[in-house]
Queue: 2 jobs
Job 1
Amino acid sequence: MKKQRLVVAGSGSTYTMGMMMSLIEEKDNFPLQDVVFYDTDEQRQERNAKATEILFKERYPELNSFSYTTNKEEAFKDADFVFVQIRTGGLAMREQDEQISLKHGVVGQETCGPGGMAYGLRSIKDMIELVKDIRSYSSEAWILNYTNPAAIVADALSREFPDDSRLLNICDMPIAIMISYAKLLDIDVWDLVPEYFGLNHFGWFTKIYDKAGNDHTERLKRLIIETGFKPEDTEIANDVSWQKTFEQARQMLIDFPEFLPNTYLQYYLYPDELAAKEDPNRTRARQVIEGRQKRVHDTCDQIIAEGSAENSDLHVDIHGVFMIKAAEALAYNTAERFIVIVKNNGVIANLPSDTMVEVPCTLTSQGPKPYAIGDIPTFNKGLIEGQRAYEKLVVDAYFENNKQKLVEALTLNRTVVNVNKAKNIVGDLLEANKGYWPDFQ
Ligand code: NAD
Ligand code: G6P
Ligand code: MN
């Protein structure tokens, strides 16, 4: 089995340590030769890197080398895989996005509504640059990208790099939801076989089977409605915000019983209620800064101070495991099935071919092979078309330097709708994003 040279771009991420634990757990299935960290923020990177160095010495002694750098050539030369998780503007800009949206009475969220638009316009520029850099040193490396808002990033990258067949955008939400299904059904999550369609953070499970072919869909719906729905992945199980989000997924199923919803649909189906519940002084960004980020930083500081990770509470999480299992399928042609983001090209028959859709695919060494879905029902199609038009307008606005399209995008977005609100939000976001967004005329 060929051992891989893996680069983690955005290695200062709050998810990096969980990912390193997952690499250790998956070492027999996805064996590594070298691991390289790359980040633009030296300090942020260094904490994770020093802790990882100690962790790998204890638990990955067979690794040939571990290094970290802010130099692109050093990082990307001869890479087999690059796992990308960058956040342009950091959590500080996320907080701005969320607060500005809430100031105008609309949902303040990382990837949905105006927050997603603002973040998308920041991410596109850095992601295009990063992919170009990676390609100039490693033309064949697999680039697996988590960077959000994944729908907008995927659309922009597919326009900029239409022929790049080794670039794949993924999201861990469908598999994180499936962990909760697995728990309710008392079946291992990797024995579940989902049918699913949609856009990123905007889709539905239509069927849940097991590997033997049994259909668990209706029993699962009954269980969710009767016993409730909770996050089960280690990273989010005890997070109050995620607990509320999963509870709301139960309500969505009651209101629209045909399919099982992605949790992110809550922002589009109950926008007023959700905006009203949020505290502008403590949006999700603040919760993450004081929660996940603090926890990870404290843990790393402790590992570095003790010179050992033995007493640390680092844990494997689905975020890491999912990306590694996808990489394993691409590297070793396992043809395992995962829900990932690909160009529609007829997969959902009644949606345009250039739409970036999130659907089940077999992952092979030739890339993702999606399963045909056919026509989707009018209600879901209508919702998707509105959201898709919003996403397309944001990416058009970026490439065409067209501010008017941002107003059109937010007018189409279900979290905004009102034109005056759309204009005011665009004005405030333009001001806050100077230096990050294109210089709109
Ligand atoms: P974070 O801010 O903690 O980490 C991001 C890191 O990227 C930082 O260390 C930052 O310095 C670095 N960075 C920023 N711009 C960079 C660039 N141009 N090149 C290299 N490094 C750069 O953020 P986080 O909360 O850990 O999230 C990381 C990313 O992963 C975000 O985009 C987040 O939305 C995304 N994410 C996606 C999914 C998914 O389902 N697709 C799941 C979880 C997280
Ligand atoms: C899920 C989503 C991601 C999102 C992450 C963290 O995993 O799929 O896209 O970035 O949650 O969200 P949070 O609000 O906890 O930072
Ligand atoms: Mn996601």
Note: The chain has 16 helices and twelve strands.
Job 2
Amino acid sequence: MRKKFIAGNWKMYTSSITAELLASAIVKGLANETRVTVAVCPPFPFLARVAQVVRGTPVALGAQNCYPKEEGAFTGEVSPSMLVDVGCQYVILGHSERRQKNGETDAFINEKVHAALKAGLKVILCIGETLGDRQSNRTEVVLETQLTGSLAKISAEQLSNVVVAYEPVWAIGTGVNATPQQAQDAHVFIRKRVSQMCGEQAGQNLLIQYGGSAKPENVSALLHQPDVDGALVGGASLQADLFLAIIRLAIQ
Ligand code: PGA
């Protein structure tokens, strides 16, 4: 039985004050609920502050990126061990905004996945097709390429610390979510492909989140699909009441 996992991707939003308030409201609202795994992923500058708020609570801390080196002359970059040091358990890698706006390739994302796992982080690996890919029936080809590239040389044991977030690019921040059936179909494909790569058991245990305009109004039907194991929430994770409502729907 896979436990549902709801994570909030705060992107480049919040301030030190609002990040702390948001984290506090989530901690308070969640109380000691542990039937669902919950994580928040604030911007780098607020990680330490949010870490203090979530310490000792069921809310885990994640970062939104890392650099695939331990340390060195890499101006402006943040290493996986620095994220662990500040209290992170998770890191989001391969988000489509970074693939598109920062030119990140599957090979580079794969380096980051290895570095993050080595440092003891769990990885939320984002993959997803664009609208053009979907319209030209290339969704599975794109998912396949991103999976095999980003997860190259990952063992079944390492995979137990990887969560895949299926985020169709056309659904991110657009208000248009994938239908439950579209999500289910993509998740089945991802699970099948990962099972081929890392073994049937690893594939069955893999948590696959849906991401893309997830909101309390639409998330319930998505979360009821047999292969949808949670959600990676952007916009709606910036309001504690909406994020908590999504978490509650994941428990039902
Ligand atoms: P959204 O973002 O929920 O605002 O669409 C999801 C994401 O980018 O992870």
Note: The two ends are 15 Å apart (CA to CA).
